[in-house]
Amino acid sequence: MKKLPVVTCPQCGKEVVWSSESRYRPFCSERCKLIDLGAWANEGYRIPEREPQADQSDDPSGQA
Q1: Residue 1: HSE in the Cβ half-sphere, 13 Å Cα cutoff
Q2: Domains annotated on the chain, with CATH
Q3: Residues whose CB falls within 8 Å of the CB of residue 27, separated by 6 or more in sequence, listed in order
Q4: Which residues of the chain have pLDDT under 50?
């Protein structure tokens, strides 16, 4: 029998077996899934914006 992978719930840290029977994967429960969704909805997670490098200009041709 193939051993199923185990992942850590990103919200609470509990170990979860990664299988089709794990309804809320990668979360351990609906509660953890909804807490994470709420954090996204409240803009608790953000993708950092990169600062433009000093040698790059707004001109796509590369000419200043």
Answers
A1: 3
A2: 6-41 (3.30.50.10)
A3: 9, 10, 11, 16, 33, 36
A4: none
